[in-house]
């Protein structure tokens, strides 16, 4: 069914745009699931080795994500305002950013890989495997950046199916390579790292090919030039998102470090619950991408009515979707956690955390959509303030008190996570729900 952004139903377009992205986000999570499940059969130490650097991976990916969010907003805006020359200029800058961030972050990650497990406070018996896993998966960083930045440029044109097909292929490849390297070659954690790295090479290459074939983004490669005015606008959008991601990912690192200090069993339980929960909320991020794209287009069209329709439809859609996935997570918590570990104690603890967080999933979804609305408007500073305040002032501060002052357990740590989610949901939503502030945000859009 074809999407008609100009004259079609806003709700229908949003649904059609969301479905492939939701599927894609779920499949991306499955890539991590495959690693965790296959490595989990090797024991708690292997699980902890793969899980330990997850928050650091989020941190380094945040640089490319900051660029991709900004590229998506401006490309969608240029398409909404029907400015093909502007779209092509943005397309060129997207590739330049991919190369700059891919090389720079890759070099830094490789240099830091021997020290990260020590900084994370990992037990000595898992440091080597954790370091190797992180180093190998960091080698194809330019391909990872291409998947993120160029992938979002493609989605901003309204094409969410092509990237979905790439992710489907990537997951099939990753499963096969995991079996080959982990079990057939007996490489364990090292094998999981090699499989993940090769799957990133595949996905980045495939996304680049699609990007070069996309008519609205195409230009002769000899015309690839750095455009100062466009980069200036992009940077104005990138830096608040980058600061948000760095500050919040650093908070995640501290948060994860605090949980690591509670012991390997508790950390493994926490990591598996975090990973399992990801399958149920990433769909919300898929809807967020669709909402951000359509908000950007509505700004380009200067169509406030369409903007309000996107806000309303996106919020309702994500609340219902995540209420359903939250209920499934609650009911399937025990068998789901058991997929990732052979330890009954770890599986039981993980399942308990999943049942706890299940009730908060719809509110988490609303928080995600509100953030996407600000990004689609190009209003990235306000969510930066709320994100940083909540992560450090709510989640990290109270987790520190729970672990080091009050000496409580994992359940209380997850209460701190829930408080962080509800704080952000409330303060993201208020300016959008109040008509005057919503109009003000729309009218001062940077585009």
Brief summary:
The protein is built from 18 helices and no strands. It has 447 residues and is an all-alpha fold.
Could you characterize the architecture of this molecule?
With 447 residues, the chain is mainly alpha-helical. The protein has one domain (10-443). It has 18 helices and no strands. The protein has helices spanning 10-40, 44-52, 54-80, 84-112, 116-119, 124-138, 141-156, 161-184, 188-213, 228-260, 264-301, 304-331, 333-339, 344-358, 361-377, 381-405, 410-433, 435-443. Helix 4 packs antiparallel against helix 6. The longest helix has 38 residues, at 264-301. The protein starts with 9 loop residues before the first helix and ends with a helix. The relative contact order is 0.13. The model has no long low-confidence stretch (mean pLDDT 89).
| Total of DSSP H or I helical runs spanning 4+ residues | 18
Indicate the overall shape.
Answer: globular
In the predicted model, the low-confidence regions spanning at least 5 consecutive residues are none
Query: What's the SSE pattern?
Result: HHHHHHHHHHHHHHHHHH
- Please state the CA-atom Rg, rounded to the nearest Å: 21 Å
Most strands sheet: none
Percent in strands:
under 5%
Helix and strand arrangement:
Elements: H1 10-40, H2 44-52, H3 54-80, H4 84-112, H5 116-119, H6 124-138, H7 141-156, H8 161-184, H9 188-213, H10 228-260, H11 264-301, H12 304-331, H13 333-339, H14 344-358, H15 361-377, H16 381-405, H17 410-433, H18 435-443
Helix pairs in contact: 1-2, 1-8, 1-9, 1-11, 1-12, 2-6, 2-11, 3-4, 3-7, 3-10, 3-11, 4-6, 4-7, 6-9, 7-9, 8-9, 10-16, 11-12, 11-14, 11-15, 12-14, 12-15, 13-14, 14-17, 15-17, 16-17
């Amino acid at each position: 069914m074809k999407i008609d952004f100009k004259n079609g139903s806003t709700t229908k377009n949003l649904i059609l745009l969301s479905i492939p992205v939701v599927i894609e986000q779920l499949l991306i999570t499955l890539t991590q699931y495959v690693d965790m499940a296959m490595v989990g059969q090797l024991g708690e130490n292997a699980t902890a080795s793969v899980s330990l650097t997850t928050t650091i991976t989020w941190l380094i990916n945040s640089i490319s994500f900051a660029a991709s969010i900004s590229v998506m907003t401006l490309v969608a805006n240029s398409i909404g305002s029907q400015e093909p020359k502007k779209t092509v200029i943005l397309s060129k800058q997207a590739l330049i950013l991919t190369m700059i961030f891919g090389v720079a972050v890759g070099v830094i990650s490789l240099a830091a890989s021997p020290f990260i497990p020590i900084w994370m406070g990992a037990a000595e018996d898992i440091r080597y495997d954790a370091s190797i896993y992180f180093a190998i998966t960091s080698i194809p960083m330019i391909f990872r950046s291409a998947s993120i930045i160029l992938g979002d440029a493609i989605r901003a044109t309204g094409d969410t199916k092509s990237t979905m097909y790439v992710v489907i292929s990537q997951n099939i490849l990753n499963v096969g390579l995991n079996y080959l390297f982990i079990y057939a070659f007996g490489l364990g954690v090292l094998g999981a790292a090699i499989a993940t790295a090769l799957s990133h090479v595949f996905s980045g290459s495939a996304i680049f090919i699609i990007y070069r074939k996309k008519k609205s983004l195409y230009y002769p490669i000899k015309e690839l030039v750095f455009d100062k005015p466009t980069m200036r606008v992009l940077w104005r959008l990138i830096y608040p998102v980058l600061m948000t991601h760095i500050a919040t990912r650093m908070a995640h690192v501290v948060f994860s470090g605090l949980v690591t200090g509670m012991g390997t069993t508790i950390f493994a339980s926490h990591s598996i619950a975090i990973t399992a929960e990801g399958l149920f909320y990433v769909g919300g991020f898929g809807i967020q991408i669709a909402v951000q794209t359509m908000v950007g287009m509505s700004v380009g069209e200067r169509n406030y009515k369409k903007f309000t329709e996107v806000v309303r439809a996106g919020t309702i859609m994500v609340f219902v979707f995540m209420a359903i996935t939250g209920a499934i997570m609650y009911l399937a918590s025990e068998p789901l956690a058991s997929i990732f570990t052979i330890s009954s104690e770890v599986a039981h603890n993980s399942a308990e955390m999943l049942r706890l967080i299940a009730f908060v999933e719809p509110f988490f979804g609303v928080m995600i959509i509100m953030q996407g609305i600000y990004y689609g408007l190009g209003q990235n500073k306000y969510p930066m303030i709320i994100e940083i305040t909540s992560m450090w002032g709510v989640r990290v501060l109270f987790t520190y008190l729970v672990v080091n002052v009050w000496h409580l357990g994992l359940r209380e740590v997850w209460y701190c996570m829930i408080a962080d989610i509800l704080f952000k949901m409330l303060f993201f939503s208020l300016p959008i729900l109040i008509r005057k502030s919503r109009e003000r945000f729309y009218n001062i859009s940077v585009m």
